[in-house]
Amino acid sequence: MMLPSPLRIIACGAIMLFAARANAQMSTSPAVVPTPWREEASAVGTTARVLIIGAHPDDEDNALIAWLSLGRHVETAVLSLTRGENGVNPGGREREQMLGMVRTAEALAERKRDGAHQYFTRAYDFGFAKNDSVAYDAWPRDSLLRDVVAVIRAFRPHVVITPFNGDTTDRDGQHQVAGQLARQAVALAGDTVHHPARLSSLLGAWNVEAFYQLVDSVRPTDLRVNVGEMDGERGRTYAELGADIRRLQRTQGVAPAPPVGAVSRYLRNLRGDSSNTEASRGNDLSHSPASTIFAASDTGWTRFAALSLADSVRRAIDSIAAGDPREAVVVRLARIERLAARAHDGLACGEPVELNCSGAMGDLALSLASTRNRSARALLDASGVVIDVTAEREAVAMGDTVGVTTRVFNGGRAPIIVSSVLVGDALFPENAATVMPDSVQTWSGYLLMRGVTTPWWLPSGLLAGTWIYRVLLNPARPVNTQLINGEDSRLDTRAIVKLRVSDVEVTANVGPIVARGETGLRGDERRPVAGVPRFSVLLEQGNQYAHAYVPFERLMRVWVGSALSHEDTVEVTMKLPPGLKTDSATRSIVLPAGGGRTLFFRVRGRWLLGRTPIDVVATPRPELPRPELQNGRRLLGIATRDVKTGFVALEYPHIATQRYSRSATDSIQAVDFRAPAKLRVAFIRGLRDEQIDSRVGELGVEIYPIDPSALGIADLSIYTTILIAPRAYAEVEALLPNVAAIRQFADRGGTVVVMYGRGELLLPGVLPFPIAFRAPKPITAIGGQMPIRIPASRSRLLDWPNRITSSDFDDWSGMQARELPATFDSHYKTVVELSDDDKKATSAGVLSTPVGKGMFIYTSLAFERQLLATNPGAARLFVNLLSASLTPKP
Length: 890
Known about the structure:
The protein has 17 helices and 49 strands. With 890 residues, it is α/β, with parallel strands linked by helices. A hairpin with a 7-residue loop joins β34 (645-650) and β35 (658-663). The chain is globular, with a radius of gyration of 30 Å. A 7-stranded mixed β-sheet has the order 5-4-3-6-7-11-8, sandwiched between helices. Strands 38-37-39-40-49-48-45 form a 7-stranded mixed β-sheet, with helices on both faces. Strands 2, 15, 16, 17, 19 and 20 form a 6-stranded mixed β-sheet that branches. The termini are far apart.
């Protein structure tokens, strides 16, 4: 159920019910592409494991992952150092941590399609780095190395693959670090002397048997994988399947379509030349080209020959024949499940055995867990069992309950027994039941929401002085559970259904629990249930500009929501600093069940120079005593307290809803600045909504979006300036054909301000004089290294209408500039100096040149980021650039 808010703001929440990736229970989260039961049965017993290590979510090779996981049933995992917090988002407004949330969800959506697992380290993507030293300045090497070693020791891959060499051939410093850490971690994972278990979440040693790098240049000893091979079950090549899966990364831009026919991937053995011969030690993949990847490994069940526990499991797996009828396969799968469970229970390493066992026993524990997971899923599918768990609504207040219905459908030919259904921590009233063929049995109960749904890596922010997330661990037991279990294993809500199928007990771990609804465009929608706070309060903007010392009157929009299942009353108070007043500081409103209301406060006064917070607080009425049981629902008593935050829901059609907390504070940055009365700006947007026009408009500057296709016929004389958004020449098709009209506008006395771009700016006519970028990637300027400086030869653009001083650059944070030219024509005059990503001084941040009677400016400064953060100095300088061709009054 969605709260009726224009901002789609949801009260905060989530349950941290944790399920390990490799446990013996089966996850039945619905996949986008269903797998036939016969193919699932053929995957049972394949125990080879491959880990691919990259720096960003878009570093993964989706075709290779599909070839391994879907084509060869190899248990495949992807480890990304970062969550992709930096970079362009063509799909929406989210930036920084919010963009990392969205890209994490995109990666998990991909894993549902290709069946692989997903891991992340604590690294934050701070942007392009010229070399590894820049990256290590932001990422403490030891911290990330511990994370990578921990993932290797937890997943225990036989083969590790890296797409990076770890040296200057990787043109991004973050890629260099990913390649280096992969090499170091592979070497240290099996060495508990130099890397003790306490540094890797108490996990024991694991020796990686083969280490490869994905390469483009080919040597005779490199392994070739044809990802253009056809998948017989799906009727498409693995390259096509990978490209289709890659389309889920919508915030990364469009990926190229694969060619038709053979598509090669080349793997170079980093531990010496490989022989390209078939494996000869019982390899599960001995009839596949993939066997050469495991030439140095024994990935067959014969490697457990000395462990009698596994021998009966191996024989049972070997008994499955490709042409067996369904009934025979069901019987054999039930036997495999029974024997694997018995062998798993016989491992005496402590729970969970998948993480506590090490060496050969650890390998066996993971292999048994994978075999049980796959055999249980295949057994249920082959038996026609469908389990559906749905809730009454999507957002549930912490401490409240929601009705949950579990349906078990038996589409097979034999009865099945459901021994128990557990939702959260409560058993449903009706337990054991027999479900006859072609019938449905239903269980109804309530889920008690004990926590809030929020990304586990966000609450503590970044570690001071670094670009890695701060994760609090118990010093007595330093185990980062979220890291070592993998992102795909995390279930905020779940139901555990125990069934007896074909005389064997199967435990189905179903999650997340979803709320179903219908929309006009998408029809049936399923949204994961989330725990949220009882109330949520938010201001619309978050931060705004204002003109200092000038009398003003402004409407402040406040949204207040409730996630309770009943109506309630709250008092909403706006707290203002001295000198400001509102018509009614406190209001009492009634909130409907699961709904919200919008309030407007009219604020008057004068803004003093600087940043001024405006806080809003919602105070619920005192809570009445209520019984422990109410209409069959268990409730948690929660003390009444002021609510000062709200949760915002990020909605994308291709991923599950993402939620994050935001303070109910509207920060007003009052700026002492001047803008010419005649300034009138025509704004050409790119595909991304950077909110540049709204930010400039808050300063009182008249700025109007204009259709670029109308530039050749529109009357541009009413404007003094044309502002072209970042990358607009590459993203807006109608802009390039109208470069002559833009040039003519400048010739007649107008100002043209072009924000940063790339190769599209080198096309004829776009800029009046040539510039050149560093190949293959332009220079960037990362904030925090050296401040932006004013050169000795001061530009006129720094003096009118606002006099810019060094203090105007004090608050520039994050990325200071993008796509800085490496060289530029002598006609251009420079304005400021800054340091590039190699810590070298550059004056290419702002380039200006007269054109006819007007002025042409190219700026690499990341004004869109600074304006979004309401940086005062950025606003003053930006107005100066927009006013470049206007004449100052005497």
